[in-house]
Each structure stands twice: as C-alpha cells, then as structure tokens.
C-alpha cells in the first residue's frame, strides 16, 4: 500500500511534522510515501488515526530547527528528502550532522539558503504607508522571496512593528498583521502597493550618505542582489551614483584640506637641542632631558613632552593625570577643556593661575587612535611609576606648602594609592617628601556628566574643594611664617 500526504501552502511545516510522526509510528518506509501538493503518482490512502507505537527516533532541538528550516526551501522534493533522512536516523543508517552523507549535506545546504533568504527579506522589505486602520497606522509592502519563507520570516516584523498594522504580499502568500494578530492567506492580487510621500525624502537621504570613495560594486551586489532592486525606491539612483563616483571622489580630494594635521605642526614647533645651552634653571635642564625619556612607551607616540608650568617658588602645586589632546599639541598643561574648569574654580577663590605650579603625574599623552580623533587612555600603574621620577624632581625644586592631587592617577603617583577617591575626596594625606597632599576629583570628570543637575552639584563641590585647598595652603604658609619669626 502506498500513501500520499497533501501539503498545503499555509502551515506546510506543521502538516509535514504531524504526518512524519504518524508515519514513523506506523513504521511506513519512505519509498511508500509521497509528500506534495497533489496526489501525484500514488492513489490517496488515508493514514490510520491511531498509531501502533510511539515514534522510535528522537532529535535534538537544533536538528529539528535545521530540518524545518530546510522545509521552507523551494525544492519540490524537500518533504520526501526530510522524511527519508529521519527514517534513516531511526534505522541508525546515518548520524545527524554527517556531511559525508549526500542527503544530510543537501538538507544542511538548503537550510543555509533559506536562512540567507530570510535575512534578505528582513533587510529589503520596504513598507509604504496607506490609510490608517482606526487609531493604528497601516503599511503595505511587496517582496519576492526565493523560497517559501513568509510564515517563518514575518514574525520578526510582528515583534518590531507591533504598534502598527501592516501587510506583506508575496507572489504566493500574504502576511497580515491586524490589531496585534498575525495571519496568512494566499495572494490573490499580486500588484505592489503604490508609492508614498516619504520615498522622495528617503531617496535624497540615500544619495547624500552614498560614499563614492568606498564604492565596491561587486560587494554591494553580493549583499543586495539585483533581483531586489525593482522593489527598493533608492536603487533607481544607484546606476547614476556608480557612474558619477569617480568624479565625486575627485571633487572630495579637491576640497580636502592641504595643510598638515595639527600634531605634525606641533612637532615642527618643538624646541631644538640648541635650547639645552640656553636653559638657566635645573627645572629647564631636566625638562630637556625628559623630552628624550624612554622609561615607558608613551613618549614615543605622543607629539611632545608637556612639562609643568608656573613659578618655581609657588606655595601650591596642582597635579593632574596626564596631558590631553590639546595639551599634547600646545605643550602646556591644562590648556584644554579641563583646564578651563580648573581656572574657573581658581577664579571663584580669587586665586590666579600664575601663582600655581601646575603639572601632571604623566608627562606624555596616552591615546588610542579612532579615525582622525585621538581618544584618551588612562596610563597604567607601570607608566605612572616610570614617570614618577620627573614629578618628584619638580616637587623637590618647587617645594610647595601643599600639593593638590586631581583624580586617581595623581593620587597614585603622590600617595601610592589611587583607590576610592570619592571617599578620600577633601582629605589631606602625607605624600612625597612628607608634603601634605589634598585629594579631589579631576575636572575632566565634570565634563563627562550628562545630567545637568548632577553636573551642577559636582561642579559646586569641586569649587568647594579648591577653596578648601587654598585655605589650607594659606594656613600652612601662616604657620611656616610664624616658625620663621620665632627662630629669628
């Protein structure tokens, strides 16, 4: 006796799955069964409603998913091939995933083709807006898939566009999403939906972002095959964009700036070795030695050394982390946005910057290139320790009454620990050469705050920290003056 299983256009995978389970339970071999949309060569014989025994084969979830994905292929023999494979798995004639088996290899390849077709549908469906359905906006789209993927691919759109009604028509099936319910029906009218008003705007945007300098026609056609072009409004412009690409690239080159990048100009401005003979103080001579520092790898990548700046008899020294991008170009410490925040805090106290010696724990800019930008990177412990020799020399030469450490890196260089700065903030600890170190945050932290209220609060606290540090320095200066008078 031969059996024929009718496979409908809608719900084909579910019908095949139920029929395959029943056939396996009945022990009906593949050569006695034909799956198709008609009776084919065999007379229709209904399957018994009660199986004689439970199925004798168990598949993993991944195996079931792969077989059912392959069942969405356009190959008319896919259903027969899948049942034959499961039968052979039951009889232990093949192991699932064995690519040396022709049928297994075929099913795996077809599943891959189906997954690629699903990806293309997700990427190249273009909705066009139509009359609303009550309070819900309504959209329609036309797509021509290679395989039978409508039922498998459209739940993606139901999750992504659940707040609107839509319809996706294909030559065989139509997916309808109404009031949050996804249904399917056979397509009766294969006419694509009409254009809408937004397509002209979208085409202008596509032309504006089309980069002729990165044009690779073969790669573009591989990712967006020409069979999809007729249903994509922007593709009408692609031939002209390709033809004009060389001309547009020439225009871009003509408009490109001809001057060297900022860091190249900064390197050209660096002092020559002749300045070593002109140095008058120990700080200046040591600064010239530091330009050739090889204690860590940062110096070899930075534009230039950024040495400390200020009077050598300053009563207070401020130490930051490292130079930023602007400081690296100018060669001066705290010359960028963070320096502006610090200057504002000093002005609030009525203390001018020219009375402060300002420097950094690390003297070169550590960064990571990202396109044309240089992104700041925090120096590690080894780099901070390698640069401490230069910082200690500055402290020995200036001998301030108080050192202000801005942030964790400065605290690490001055006190040996950069941990828990938020808890230590506003405190005075003993640092290098038994000098007091006042701890606070780095002003760059304030620039990264996105919440205006939080930024305002933290800025106020930073101003209070600087005020407290200046007051403490003045107290130390007064005590030192008293000691000097007593000795006299």
Short descriptors:
single chain, 488 residues, alpha/beta, five-stranded mixed beta sheet, 19 helices
Plain-language structure description:
- This protein has 488 residues and is of the alpha/beta class.
- It is built from 19 helices and 14 strands.
- The protein has helices spanning 12-26, 61-70, 78-90, 102-124, 150-153, 155-160, 198-209, 217-223, 238-243, 245-255, 262-268, 282-290, 325-330, 337-349, 381-398, 408-415, 421-424, 443-447, 452-487, and strands at residues 3-6, 33-36, 128-133, 136-142, 165-169, 173-178, 181-186, 316-320, 356-360, 367-370, 373-376, 402-406, 428-430, 436-440.
- The strands form four sheets. A five-stranded mixed beta sheet has the order 3-4-5-6-7, with no helix packed on it. A five-stranded mixed beta sheet has the order 9-8-12-14-13, sandwiched between helices. A two-stranded parallel sheet has the order 1-2.
- Helix 14 (337-349) packs across helix 19 and helix 15 packs across helix 16 (408-415).
- It is elongated, with a radius of gyration of 37 Å.
Estimated helix fraction: 40-55%
Cα-atom radius of gyration? 37 Å
So what's the oligomer here? single chain
| Major beta sheet summary | 5 strands, mixed
Strand content: 5-15%
Return the average pLDDT rounded to an integer. Answer: 86
User: What shape does the CA trace take?
Assistant: elongated
Q: Count the strands?
A: 14
Strand order of the largest sheet: 3-4-5-6-7
- Cα separation of the termini: 125 Å
Q: Flag low-confidence runs.
A: 39-43, 273-277
Structural class: alpha/beta
Helix count, DSSP H or I runs of 4 or more residues: 19
């Amino acid at each position: 006796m031969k059996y024929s299983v009718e496979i409908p256009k809608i719900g084909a995978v579910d019908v095949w799955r139920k029929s395959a389970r029943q056939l396996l339970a009945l022990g009906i071999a593949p050569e006695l069964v034909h799956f198709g949309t008609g009776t084919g060569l065999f007379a229709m014989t209904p399957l018994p409603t009660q199986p004689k025994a439970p199925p004798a084969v168990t598949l993993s979830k991944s195996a079931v998913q792969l077989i059912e994905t392959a069942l969405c292929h356009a190959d008319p023999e896919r259903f027969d091939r899948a049942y034959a494979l499961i039968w052979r798995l039951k009889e232990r004639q093949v192991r699932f995933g064995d690519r040396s088996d022709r049928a297994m290899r075929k099913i795996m390849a077809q599943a891959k083709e189906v997954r690629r077709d699903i990806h293309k549908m997700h990427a190249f469906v273009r909705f066009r807006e139509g009359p609303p359905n009550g309070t819900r906006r309504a959209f329609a789209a036309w797509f021509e898939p290679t395989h039978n993927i409508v039922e498998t691919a459209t739940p993606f759109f139901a999750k992504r566009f659940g707040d609107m009604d839509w319809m996706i028509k294909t030559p065989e099936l139509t997916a309808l999403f109404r009031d949050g319910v996804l249904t399917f029906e056979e397509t009766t009218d294969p006419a694509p939906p009409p254009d809408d008003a937004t397509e002209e705007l979208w085409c202008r945007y596509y032309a504006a972002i089309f980069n002729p300098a990165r044009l690779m026609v073969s790669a573009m056609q591989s990712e967006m095959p020409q069979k999809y072009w007729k249903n994509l409004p922007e593709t009408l412009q692609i031939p002209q964009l390709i033809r004009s690409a060389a001309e547009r690239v020439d225009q871009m080159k003509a408009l490109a700036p001809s001057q060297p990048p900022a860091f190249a100009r900064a390197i050209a401005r660096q002092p020559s070795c002749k300045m070593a003979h002109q140095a008058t103080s120990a700080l200046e001579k040591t600064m010239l030695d530091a330009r050739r520092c090889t204690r860590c790898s940062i110096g070899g990548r930075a534009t230039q050394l950024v040495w400390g700046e200020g009077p050598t008899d300053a009563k207070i020294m401020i130490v930051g982390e490292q130079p930023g991008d602007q400081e690296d170009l100018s060669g001066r410490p705290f010359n960028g946005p963070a320096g502006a925040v610090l200057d504002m805090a000093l002005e609030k106290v009525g203390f001018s910057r020219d009375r402060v010696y300002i420097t950094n724990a690390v003297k070169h800019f550590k960064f990571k290139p990202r396109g044309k930008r240089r992104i700041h990177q925090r120096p590690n412990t080894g780099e901070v320790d390698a640069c401490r020799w230069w910082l200690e020399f500055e402290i020995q030469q200036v001998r301030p009454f108080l050192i202000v450490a801005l942030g964790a890196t400065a605290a690490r260089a001055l006190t040996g620990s950069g941990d828990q700065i938020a808890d230590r903030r506003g405190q005075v600890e003993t640092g290098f050469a038994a000098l007091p170190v006042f701890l606070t945050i780095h002003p760059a932290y304030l620039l990264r705050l996105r919440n205006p209220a939080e930024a305002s609060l933290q800025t106020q606290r930073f101003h209070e920290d600087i005020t407290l540090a200046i007051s403490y320095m003045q107290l130390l200066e007064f005590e030192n003056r008293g000691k000097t008078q007593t000795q006299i």
